[in-house]
Amino acid sequence: MRVLGVDPGLTRCGVGVVDGGPGQKPTLVEVLVVRTPPEDDIAYRLLAVAERVEALLDQHRPDTVAIERVFSQSNVRTVMGTAQAAGVVALAAARRGIPVAWHTPSEVKAAVSGNGNADKAQVTAMVTRLLRLDAAPKPADAADALALAICHLWRSPMQSRLAAALSTSVLAARPARIGSVGR
């Protein structure tokens, strides 16, 4: 499975592509950070993020895009820019028929480090170790994007099995409820 992980942002948007699957060690395909100048118009900044991500989607053809779920921050401008960047990435994936998965920061930290409260240094160290890299990905946005991709690689098989089990149990329960309506 190939996952494109995105740590959304307007000034720095981390993007990492990782291959892997059950019983396989994750492998780095590409990592980069899309940068946009804060003084530029927001529409052009979003366009720059979208164009770069679209090029990566077309080049690497991931099976899934994993995006960090935007969480509340005290700075409304920052959270708005992050949400907007996440939105253009999700739109680019949807236009290509690529599923999008959303992961919270604590889910990602727990998946790669075993600690949902890990700091950036711990996450970066684990990403470096898991991908067997000679040097830590920099800046932190790059490491976070790779962590998102790894998180999805590891969590998606379980999430798929849970979703299948839930849909089976709901479908199994449905005929019983329908049959009892007329009684």
TrEMBL record:
<comment type="function">
    <text>The RuvA-RuvB-RuvC complex processes Holliday junction (HJ) DNA during genetic recombination and DNA repair. Endonuclease that resolves HJ intermediates. Cleaves cruciform DNA by making single-stranded nicks across the HJ at symmetrical positions within the homologous arms, yielding a 5'-phosphate and a 3'-hydroxyl group; requires a central core of homology in the junction. The consensus cleavage sequence is 5'-(A/T)TT(C/G)-3'. Cleavage occurs on the 3'-side of the TT dinucleotide at the point of strand exchange.</text>
</comment>
<keyword id="KW-0479">Metal-binding</keyword>
<comment type="similarity">
    <text>Belongs to the RuvC family.</text>
</comment>
<keyword id="KW-0963">Cytoplasm</keyword>
<dbReference type="Pfam" id="PF02075">
    <property type="entry name" value="RuvC"/>
</dbReference>
<dbReference type="GO" id="GO:0003677">
    <property type="term" value="F:DNA binding"/>
</dbReference>
<dbReference type="GO" id="GO:0008821">
    <property type="term" value="F:crossover junction DNA endonuclease activity"/>
</dbReference>
<dbReference type="GO" id="GO:0048476">
    <property type="term" value="C:Holliday junction resolvase complex"/>
</dbReference>
<protein>
    <recommendedName>
        <fullName>Crossover junction endodeoxyribonuclease RuvC</fullName>
        <ecNumber>3.1.21.10</ecNumber>
    </recommendedName>
</protein>
<dbReference type="GO" id="GO:0006310">
    <property type="term" value="P:DNA recombination"/>
</dbReference>
<dbReference type="GO" id="GO:0005737">
    <property type="term" value="C:cytoplasm"/>
</dbReference>
<keyword id="KW-0255">Endonuclease</keyword>
<feature type="binding site">
    <location>
        <position position="7"/>
    </location>
    <ligand>
        <name>Mg(2+) 1</name>
    </ligand>
</feature>
<keyword id="KW-0540">Nuclease</keyword>
<keyword id="KW-0227">DNA damage</keyword>
<feature type="binding site">
    <location>
        <position position="68"/>
    </location>
    <ligand>
        <name>Mg(2+) 2</name>
    </ligand>
</feature>
<dbReference type="InterPro" id="IPR002176">
    <property type="entry name" value="X-over_junc_endoDNase_RuvC"/>
</dbReference>
<keyword id="KW-0234">DNA repair</keyword>
<feature type="active site">
    <location>
        <position position="141"/>
    </location>
</feature>
<keyword id="KW-0460">Magnesium</keyword>
<dbReference type="InterPro" id="IPR012337">
    <property type="entry name" value="RNaseH-like_sf"/>
</dbReference>
<dbReference type="InterPro" id="IPR020563">
    <property type="entry name" value="X-over_junc_endoDNase_Mg_BS"/>
</dbReference>
<keyword id="KW-0238">DNA-binding</keyword>
<comment type="subunit">
    <text>Homodimer which binds Holliday junction (HJ) DNA. The HJ becomes 2-fold symmetrical on binding to RuvC with unstacked arms; it has a different conformation from HJ DNA in complex with RuvA. In the full resolvosome a probable DNA-RuvA(4)-RuvB(12)-RuvC(2) complex forms which resolves the HJ.</text>
</comment>
<dbReference type="GO" id="GO:0006281">
    <property type="term" value="P:DNA repair"/>
</dbReference>
<feature type="active site">
    <location>
        <position position="68"/>
    </location>
</feature>
<dbReference type="InterPro" id="IPR036397">
    <property type="entry name" value="RNaseH_sf"/>
</dbReference>
<feature type="binding site">
    <location>
        <position position="141"/>
    </location>
    <ligand>
        <name>Mg(2+) 1</name>
    </ligand>
</feature>
<keyword id="KW-0233">DNA recombination</keyword>
<keyword id="KW-0378">Hydrolase</keyword>
<dbReference type="GO" id="GO:0000287">
    <property type="term" value="F:magnesium ion binding"/>
</dbReference>
<feature type="active site">
    <location>
        <position position="7"/>
    </location>
</feature>
